[in-house]
Specification:
Chains A, B: Belongs to the carbon-nitrogen hydrolase superfamily. BUP family. Chain A has about 425 residues and is of the alpha/beta class. The first copy, chain A, has a single domain, classed as 4-Layer Sandwich (Nitrilase/N-carbamoyl-D-aminoacid amidohydrolase), CATH 3.60.110. Chain A has helices spanning about 15-20, 30-40, 40-50, 70-75, 115-135, 170-185, 265-270, 285-290, 295-305, 370-380, 385-395, and strands spanning about 60-65, 80-85, 100-105, 140-145, 185-195, 200-210, 215-220, 245-250, 250-255, 275-280, 305-310, 315-325, 330-340, 345, 360-370, 405-410. In chain A, a hairpin with a 5-residue loop joins strand 6 and strand 7 (about 215-220).
Chain lengths: ~425, ~425
């Protein structure tokens, strides 16, 4: 599968979709990139890639060679492993600032009927070799998926799943702190947070663990969905932590949790606070959002001149009690297919291929953070943005008596002559 | 070329790129959609389309059948003609509000060395059959490309091209007013404006002509580029018309001119003022922006629950006097290839294929404007957007003494243990 300048390191690189069509459709295809690579001539594939994944100006997306222990872990534990490198120009006054960043996507490990402690611990066990592979690969900053310690049970509206919630310094944080220390690695851990100090309040929170195993801070999801089976507003409210950027040993990072990716202002605010990498740990299903998935993260990376790491969980989770979806259709017990497809987007409009739509996976990318400022210098989006005008516009808009700026055709109700 | 549920009406539908590779590359390919359609099996093409152009949930993009006179004009004058239909759900309390919208892309007609009046008039003549085809097709709202009366001479920095500037009620507006009356058609006309009343000031302006031939108003480009050869800031300043939405006989429209598409706040402001269709008349070249082109407009349509019509001019324009590009390379006389690729994006994340990368073209789409509110009701982006927080954030950001919200790892300068 490997082409020059584009080494895809993978546990099982076969483009499943092209060989295993099910029920006359290709819904089972593994990744768009692999599907196109297997189906197109090299020449056509190259041109399609130029437009689709932004490999313009004759640049090729480069693969990186990972150490054998990482590849062995991927092979033994059957998770997708891919690694790429975003290039930046050499500068005369600054050294390159290359960091290696990892994204983990995974399915849950036990049926949702298993005892909660077993469910949680078995996810820990399942993630262990993937985190080890990241550590063995020299990953500097690693991000896990949204609410990674649990099934995404918010579709059910049952409050018993709240038991999975943990304080910021709880069991899952302690589990990851060990890896952070062992591998000198910053780890972003998105969990369901139980805020004991504020009366057992729930939040959807990302805990930022420093490379010495210390807790640097937390960020709480800013925008909560009310769409499809995403009944998250039943469980937690809009976050109260603003748009913090965490200055880590390896760069300035921020976290835009899941549904926040639909809000350009959320992306913008992290950018205004100086983020160089914004992670978007998510849980989203094919029927609802798959065509948006490759668009929103890349747009944010372009508009804000930073890198984006997008993560989506994998698989179909079946719950004990059926529930309805507010669409008049019969009750059912699953949320739909979480389609994985984790990937990186860069400020120069390029992006990596995506991880599998079906399998657990680790996506690694080297990125020279100097690229962020290089793109700001080139395109000048911050400078040309006229924020004063928009600050005023929004202040006006939020007033209850706001009147939109509308110019009506005075001949609106005249018949055509 | 036609498939069921996807009729591409075209003057010359042959996927040029697959048959005419030049210099070992496919830079000459006609459109990504046609390239993929010609290269992939129908089954794979369908699945790729599902993810790439957002035809999710089993929906197929439907073609519409155009009257023979339109097809004959396309054939005789050799311009690309495509027509599609975006579907919306039937509602119980509102009738469908289906409008037919058209986008025109074109190259200039004479060498840039020809007398200016001849250049302008020959573009008028060239556009005539394309506008007639739109009229014959029953188009309700038609938008032309940015600065359509002239070559995109802003790369040169020569002030003599200012002679192409016209007042809002000038020659080009009069030319289009006749078609607006004849076809009961709203026409958006982006020109280089000469504002005589304000001391011969230049603006990059869209004139909105009502379906009775009246001038409804104008909008001036809000964001001016300083990138590559886009030396537009030499010619005109940031617009002073805010973010007007024009209430026309066929729907509420707004115009985001060219570089404004890189600014999510610009898209947002038109949305907050109630736009249902936002046009993005542009002039942009392959080396600079082609991988961004399919991303930004679709993201705006998704985030703001409105339709977007994207237009880019076509061809390579060669100027009399060579100029340099601020990249250290030798002087040259052209701007690069304007890659056309005009298309529509819808609020449900779907989009049409694009017009040719090389040929003049008319893209037509029927759209039920009810889809905008349907998507707002479904996704609730406006309701969940927390604009108060961002109004405050921006008011804070624009102060010269703004301090970003940064949380630093206190162990930042400790060596790994």
């Amino acid at each position: 599968m490997a082409r020059e300048g584009e080494v895809v390191v993978t546990g099982n690189g076969k483009p499943e979709g092209t060989h295993n069509p099910t029920n006359g459709s290709l819904c089972g295809f593994d990744s768009l990139h692999r599907l196109l690579q297997a189906s197109l001539s090299p020449q056509v594939f190259q041109e399609v890639s130029r437009v689709l994944i932004g490999l313009n100006c004759g640049k090729a997306l480069q693969g990186i060679s990972l150490p054998d222990p990482a590849k062995e872990l991927s092979s033994r534990h059957d998770f997708d492993l891919q690694a790429f490198c975003f290039l930046a120009d050499k500068e005369l006054l600054r050294e390159p600032r290359i960091v290696r960043v990892g994204l983990i996507q995974n399915s849950i490990a036990l049926p949702t009927t298993a005892p909660f402690q077993d469910q949680k611990r078995s996810i820990f066990q399942k993630l262990k070799p993937i985190i080890e592979a990241a550590g063995a690969s020299g990953v500097n900053i690693l991000c896990l998926q949204e609410a990674w310690t649990m099934p995404f049970a918010f579709c059910t509206r049952e409050k018993r799943w709240c038991e999975f919630a943990e304080p910021v310094d709880g069991e899952s944080t302690q589990f990851l702190q060990n890896f952070a220390r062992k591998y000198n690695m910053v780890i972003v851990s998105p969990i369901l947070e139980r805020d004991v100090k504020h009366g057992e309040t729930m939040w959807n929170t990302a805990v930022i663990i420093g490379n010495h195993g210390n807790i640097i801070g937390k960020h709480r999801k800013n925008h909560i969905p009310r769409v499809g089976d995403f009944n998250e507003s039943t469980y937690y409210m809009e976050g109260n932590t603003g748009h913090p950027v965490f200055e880590t040993a390896f760069g300035r990072i921020a976290i835009n949790v899941c549904y926040g990716r639909h809000h350009p202002l959320n992306w913008l605010a992290f950018g205004l606070n100086g983020a160089e990498i914004v992670f978007n740990p998510s849980a989203t299903v094919g029927e609802l959002s798959e065509p948006m998935w490759p668009i929103e993260a890349r747009n944010a990376a372009i508009a804000n001149s930073y890198f984006v790491g997008s993560i989506n969980r994998v698989g179909t989770e079946i719950f004990p009690n059926p529930f309805t979806s507010g669409d008049g259709k019969p009750q059912h017990a699953d949320f739909g297919h979480f389609y994985g497809s984790s990937h990186f987007s860069a400020p120069d409009a390029s992006c990596t291929p995506s991880l599998s739509r079906h399998k657990d996976g680790l996506m690694i990318s080297d990125m020279d953070l100097n690229l962020c400022r290089q793109l700001k210098d080139k395109w000048g989006f911050r400078m040309t943005a006229r924020y004063e005008m928009y600050a005023e516009m929004l202040a006006h808009y939020v007033k209850p008596d706001f009147e939109p700026q509308v110019i009506s055709d005075p001949l609106l109700h005249k018949n055509p002559s």
